[in-house]
Amino acid sequence: MNKRGFAYLKSLGLVSLGLVTSVAEAKEPARNPNIVLIFADDLGYGDLGCFGASQYQTPHLDQLAARGMKFTHFYVSQAVCSASRAALMTGCYANRVGISGALNPFAETGLNPDEETIAEVLKKKDYRTIAIGKWHLGHHPQFLPTSQGFDEYLGIPYSNDMWPLTYDNVRATPQTNVRKASFPELPLLENTQKIDEFRTIADQEKITTLYTEKAVRFIHDNQNSPFFLYLAHSMPHVPLAVSEKFKGKSNQGLYGDVLMEIDWSVGEIVAALEQCGLTENTLVIFTSDNGPWLNFGNHAGSAGGLRQGKGTSFEGGQRVPCIMAFPGTIPAGTVCSNIASTIDLLPTFAALAGAPLPSRKIDGISILPLLAGNFSANPRNEFYYYYRQNSLEAVRKGDWKLVFPHPGRNYEGFAPGQNGLGGKVNDQFNFEGGLYDLRRDPGERYNLQPFYPEIVAELEKVARQAREDLGDDLTGNPGKNRRKPGSLN
User: Residues 340, 451: one domain?
Assistant: First the structure.
């Protein structure tokens, strides 16, 4: 840890408590720590070996967890692509910065350049920055990574299914799928220029390797300066594709093969850090943008027993696996059950680097005490579950979650699709809501609202604060502190 990060922990009283003695005794690096943030797409809570996955192996991620920390109550801002990424990049709930849903290739909006991203915060401390993989925060030049604090970008501008092929990998026509037929070929961008395109599922088989090789080169090329490497994998979002080196390697079909290749990618990045002598001075984080797209059946992941999945504000949609490793700072082999979120990463990185926070209001809280193993610090004890445009569907405080009546996606009662084709869902199911004790009932099956009126009242107070600040479409409250996305007009 650098001097500023150590001073920050000392100011919290953690050093004097002896909770980070190893940090105090460790040799301080000569520069700010590197940060590697790996973001999977549609990977569920139960999709890693160290989170209970079976029939395929994720040894590199399991080893990362063994030498670092597993977060078991880690949340995304919303369980959908663009909103989740906007929150990650800005440290804000996605509805604060005006991003919702999943932007398509015809969108004329994107992340407002006036918002400060993680990359822009770290650039203040002379970090080299790169974004690799899926961006999905606007495909026009003013919204792309190189306009948002990143020195370099290589990847696709939106989801890998936003192309003119249907989910059975057949080219769409206006007769078979008018929406898909209108999409352009899936572009591969370097900075702001298209350098290639993916026209077939065979083309997408090289995508994970392509991203990984770029990440490894970046580490080697920038080993003498602090850097921020953001790698947002396109997989395991459907359509699934995997390179020859992993085809048929798992006992769970193509989905397992894809996860094994993502695990390989993590291993290559960790090896590059080791080769460059950077392991001790690099924070590595692996997590996902939301839960599994369950109606895709054997081409979807597992929510690990949590309720529902992608596109919902239930735990299976917004709670994701998270692993963090930082030798000398994060105690090895630890498990953190405190609430934390992707919105907390920006302020945590700023604290590590000694960088000032954005001038505009953010929602994230530094979780540096948790990284040091001080779980009693509990920097975040509340969380808002927003979805759709601006609907507050639930709030959490401590172990208690209050779900409000709302229309939403329901996967239950429908047979999932198979082999790349999606099954039916009900996107307008009327959920009744309820009070759930997530310590004893992470599957949100037992409504305790009639038994704990005092807990309900406490959580209603949290909801009123959220509605006052950010608004709530369900109650007709516009909120006072929402900001507009970037727009071409």
Answer: no
Rounded to whole angstroms, the Cα distance separating 15 from 427 reads 50
Token representation of residue 408: 């939403």
Asked whether 42 and 301 are in contact (CB, 8 A), the reply is yes
* Range of the structural domain that residue 232 is part of: 35-381
Q: How far apart are the first and last CA of the chain?
A: 44
> Catalytic annotation on 81?
yes
DSSP state of 409: E
Q: Are residues 150 and 195 in the same domain?
A: yes
Question: What SS3 state is found at 384?
Answer: strand
In a domain, 11, yes or no: no
Domain end, chosen from 331, 358, 381, is at 381
Asked if 342 contacts 85 with a C-beta cutoff of 8 angstroms, the reply is: no
pLDDT digits (tens, 9 = 90+) for 40-70: 999 999 999 999 999 999 999 999 999 999 9
Separation CA 19–CA 364 (nearest Å): 23
Reported as a single tens digit per residue, the pLDDT across 407-448 is: 999 999 999 999 999 999 999 999 999 999 999 999 999 999
Tokens of 157: 């501008």
Asked if 237 is an active-site residue, the reply is: no
Q: Both tokens of residue 108? A: 């004329």
Going by C-alpha positions, the residue among 292, 289, 273 that lies closest to residue 281 is: 273
Active-site residue (options: 60, 73, 81, 233): 81
Catalytic residue among 60, 73, 92, 136: 136
Final residue of a domain: which of 360, 381, 402?
Answer: 381
Query: In this structure, are 69 and 148 located in the same domain?
Result: yes
